[in-house]
Design a protein that fits this description.
Layout: E1 13-15, E2 19-20, H1 30-45, E3 54-58, H2 69-76, E4 86-87, H3 93-106, E5 112-120, E6 127-129, E7 140-142, H4 144-150, H5 159-170, H6 174-191, H7 193-200, E8 206-210, E9 213-218, H8 229-234, E10 253-262, H9 264-270, E11 278-287, H10 297-308, E12 315-321, H11 325-335, H12 348-351, H13 358-373, E13 376-384, E14 388-396
Parallel strand pairs: 3-4, 3-5, 12-13
Antiparallel strand pairs: 1-10, 2-10, 5-10, 6-7, 8-9, 11-14, 13-14
Length: 397
């Protein structure tokens, strides 16, 4: 069933630049940083924190006091009288958080919800689990970032192995992956042309500090490297005998993003231009067989489209979360799309993988692309841990 009452104010969203692994944002607490950036965004857009009657926070990498999650973030934003859930669903966290906010608005529980997502994959925690019955009374330990990328406890393999599994099953070659990666890089380069005019419509710079000392400002993405056909061809596969290289997969990153979800009336009040309507139409999800994670974006997309009552041909723009180029190749092949028509203006394959916020950023770019091209339906679909995926359909009118 399609949603009918959940809207996003035009301009009611932000993303920070995404910072490379161990880069400019690696020393910042991600929830505190989201509070600083969110507060700056609200001030710049002249949005009163009292506008919100709910909040949803998405985060996947625990940090100090993240137990207090969404209510803590609300307090930092100056909205200490509201509350809401903190959600985590691997790389589908953004889509899940947005769906949670939309459903609350749809059923009349809330009228204006701030959906935010943040993560810092740099300097991830090292967790020790006590076990007095272990050998010598010793427990076990875990590195939540690297450990979770390197082994799904259900499928029993690393995420990159799921990409190789899909490549073998679908006959997707190294050359196809490299070609797709080069297309995605060229799309990103077009998006940052003209002094980054496209990104500046939604991107909030981050003031960098050490204590009270100013260290400058992070204005643009950090960690995007020049990509050429020759450079990609020279790389060795990450796994011996495989097809995925460091060039045809994304890179870990840090950052945050946010989107306001509201009733039609509240969205009009908060919009840059109340004549532009952005509706959340539907969301979908899917899970596929063990060890085939990138494959899930296709059934998730079809589920969301079915709920929206439309087909892929009805979509004026499409974005994906693609940690591996092989996922994008498979998606375009199965959905009957030219690779050049998907992920205009960039994608996580190029600008990075901070898990929780990257879906919100992709959806924000989807909205901006639809507005620039005259509106219509847009589809976002992205895979997540546990061989699963989520998708969202929007309409700009």
């Amino acid at each position: 069933m399609a949603l009918e009452k959940s809207f996003i104010p035009y301009g009611g969203y932000w993303s920070t630049p995404f910072s490379r692994w161990q880069g400019s944002l690696s020393g910042y607490h991600s929830i505190r940083l989201a509070g600083d950036v969110g507060r700056s965004f609200l001030e710049d857009r002249d949005i009163d924190p009292a506008s919100f009657d709910g909040i949803v926070l998405g985060i996947t990498v625990q940090q100090a006091y993240s137990f207090y999650g969404a209510p803590w973030l609300a307090g930092m934003l100056g909205a200490s009288d509201i509350t809401g859930p903190t959600v985590s669903q691997a790389c589908a966290t953004s889509a899940r958080a947005l769906a949670a906010a939309a459903v609350e608005v749809e059923v009349g529980q809330r009228s204006c919800v701030l959906t935010a997502a943040c993560d810092r994959t740099s300097n991830g925690p090292h967790v020790y689990y006590p076990d007095p019955h272990g050998p010598g009374g010793m427990g076990t330990s875990e590195d939540p970032v690297l450990g979770n990328m390197n082994k799904d406890p259900h499928a029993g393999l690393a995420m990159i192995a799921t990409a190789e599994n899909l490549a073998r099953e679908s006959g997707i070659t190294r050359e196809e992956q490299d070609e797709l990666t080069l297309i995605r890089y060229e799309q990103y380069e077009k998006a940052v042309a003209g002094d980054r005019a496209f990104q500046k419509a939604y991107m909030v710079p981050v003031a960098l500090k050490r204590g009270k000392k100013s260290l400058g400002t992070l204005e643009a993405d950090e960690g995007v490297y020049e990509t050429t056909a020759e450079g990609l061809a020279a790389l060795r596969p990450v796994i011996d005998g495989g097809s995925v290289t460091y060039g045809s997969q994304t890179h870990p990153a840090d950052g945050n993003a946010g989107i306001i979800v509201a009733t039609r009336e509240r969205a009009r009040e908060l919009a840059h231009n109340p004549g532009v309507e952005i509706r959340i139409v539907s969301y979908g999800e899917a899970r596929v067989e063990k060890g085939m994670m990138p494959k899930a974006i296709v059934p998730a997309a079809r589920h969301a489209l079915e709920r929206a009552g439309i087909g892929i041909a009805d979509c004026a723009a499409v974005k994906t979360h693609n940690p591996f180029a092989v996922a994008d190749v498979f998606f375009c092949r199965e959905m009957g799309l030219a690779p050049e028509s998907v992920n205009n203006n960039g994608s996580p394959l190029i600008w990075g993988h901070p898990q929780a916020p990257m879906g919100l950023r992709a959806i924000i770019e989807l909205i901006e692309e639809l507005i620039a091209s005259g509106g219509g339906y847009g589809l976002f679909s992205g895979c997540a841990g546990g061989d699963s995926a989520m998708a969202v359909v929007l309409e700009v009118a």
